[in-house]
């Protein structure tokens, strides 16, 4: 009886610690896999990867009715997470990949240098190109969320460096959504954000749509 109890306890502890060791966003990735099994994604679609600005764009297909879109944004993710889960996130056959990520990298560490975030993006870009050497790859500029105003200097520097990098790459574009989110005085329009001053309203997404449309394959 004691041996059975000991075996049971060992199994319980093993299960507990195996669950505890699962990396951040593991469940999000499993959810994506389940979705793909239940409804196999189309080939030659536009793949969106990144953080909550994509996650919360649940009706993105309504904004681009003539496009086939796979949305694989997961809230809170950083470029480090995109790199970690690259094999899973790139397990599709898209004709174009659009990335929105980097904002949370700075929020996670407000002392983070822009160069670190840029290097993280370059690493992810290289992972994409290793699998898809010729498809269109675009990066949406980091938005200047009012709740993260103290981080804007690093974000602006990162945007500038990523824009310069993308300009040199084939079949790549830097999609700058900065101006469209500003008023005539160059101030960020707070009414484009919901109460948390981080995530966007439908009007904000509508403005993104206008900027993104010319780049969409």
From TrEMBL:
Signal peptide, first to last residue: 1-18
A single MF term (Gene Ontology): phosphatidylcholine lysophospholipase activity
This protein's record includes keyword Signal: yes
Every SGNH hydrolase-type esterase domain range: 60-207
Entry keywords, A to Z: Signal
Protein name: Lysophospholipase L1
